[in-house]
Specification:
Strand 4, helix 2 and strand 5 form a beta-alpha-beta unit. Helix 9 packs antiparallel against helix 10. The protein has a single domain, classed as 3-Layer(aba) Sandwich (UDP-N-acetylmuramoyl-L-alanine:D-glutamate ligase), CATH 3.40.1190.20. It is globular, with a radius of gyration of 18 Å. It has a 9-stranded mixed beta sheet with strand order 5-4-1-8-9-10-11-12-13, sandwiched between helices. It has a 4-stranded mixed beta sheet with strand order 3-2-6-7. It is built from 11 helices and 13 strands. With about 325 residues, it is an alpha/beta fold. The structure holds adenosine-5'-diphosphate (ADP). The site of adenosine-5'-diphosphate has 19 residues, from helix 9 and helix 10.
């Protein structure tokens, strides 16, 4: 089958412990936590026991070491994670507003995350990967973008599969050329994992004039065979050409929503690749997302398969 591959930013995240506008001074903080949407995704894949590998870069510093140690302990192949001798590991500061929404300050543009490119170890990994998961956030960084485009073409050509999470971040948004590239990837992908209103730009349609059903129909017609719509605390829905499955959310106390969508996607992809049916994979995905929001830190709530089984057995679902 070949490993599941993810490409992009590996950073640390530092979280404000107070909510509200702006950072206070001094601001009580938690972290650094290992982070970066592609890294969270692949960490959760590894924890679930799926063969998984990461392409990216970290600085030769403590933040880089922290990330590498975490990915290795999850069983992720890091042979294609470069160690940048000059530029540091990137970082993100996160704070939560009173309404629960998030504000990010990213320090990624001049970090190792933006400097890696095609290399021998990258080529070796891409040559044996069975699945590529693309994170929209990584597309805003030119070197990552080039590696993703090349890897996607090679893996699809060999009969591998592709999943795509739009993961739109206004702080990391790209120009019109990114939107065009994104649409090319939608045309190639087998599985699309938008979150809420991301469904509409993912379908290349304007929200005010389009219903959810129209956007789904358009994507299915373009050849995406599975669309999993993440609905935050309201669970998720799966759409295929011949079925719609609505998954009720697990009832949890949310303390930190960052990483939920990445863990959700990782669980769905890994369970499908381990041979599970779509409905069972959706249950594990909802469990992975819900479990992850119960811990502070983007990957601190990521569970193993046994931990998710236990979570599913012991956690009520809101119908
Ligand atoms: P993203 O982080 O990509 O925006 P979501 O916030 O929609 O993704 O979270 C992904 C999935 O995790 C949801 O579809 C849901 O199944 C689960 N989830 C997230 N937040 C909660 C929550 N507060 N309670 C229960 N499940 C949740």
């Amino acid at each position: 089958l070949g490993p599941t591959l993810c490409i992009g930013e590996i950073i640390v995240e530092i979280v404000a412990t107070t909510t509200g506008d702006g950072f206070r001074h001094p601001q009580p903080l938690l972290g650094p936590f290992p982070s970066g949407a592609p890294a969270i995704f692949i960490s959760q894949c590894g924890r679930l026991g799926g063969q998984s590998a990461m392409i990216g870069a970290v600085g030769a510093d403590d933040f880089g070491a922290l990330n590498l140690a975490r990915l290795q302990s999850d069983g992720v192949d890091v042979s294609a994670v470069a160690l940048d001798p000059e530029w540091p590991t990137g970082s993100a500061f996160v704070r939560y507003r009173a309404d629960g929404s998030r504000e990010f300050v990213f320090n990624i543009n001049h970090s190792a995350a933006t400097r890696f490119g095609w290399s021998e170890p990258v080529a070796r990994l891409v040559a044996r990967a069975g699945h590529l998961h693309v994170m929209g956030s990584a597309l805003s960084m030119p070197p990552a973008r080039e590696v993703i485009v090349r890897a996607a073409a090679m893996i699809k050509e060999r009969g591998g599969t592709l999943s795509l999470d739009p993961n739109l971040r206004k702080e990391l948004s790209g120009g019109p050329e990114i939107a065009e590239l994104f649409q090319c990837l939608v045309g190639l992908c087998d599985l699309l994992l938008p979150s809420g209103a991301e469904l509409f730009p993912a379908a290349g349609l304007d929200a005010p004039d389009t219903t959810e059903a129209q956007a789904i129909a358009h994507l299915l017609q373009r050849g995406v065979t599975e669309i999993v719509l993440k609905r935050g605390p309201n669970g998720a829905s799966l759409f295929t050409p011949d079925s719609v499955i609505r998954a009720a959310p697990f009832q949890v106390d949310e303390v930190d929503p960052t990483g939920a969508g990445d863990c959700f996607g990782a669980a769905y992809v890994t369970c499908r690749r381990l041979g599970m049916g779509a409905e069972a994979a959706l249950t594990y995905a909802c469990a992975a997302g819900a479990r992850n929001v119960t811990a502070v830190g983007p990957m601190e709530g990521a569970g193993t398969l046994a931990e998710l089984d236990d979570f599913i057995r012991t956690t009520a679902r809101r119908i």
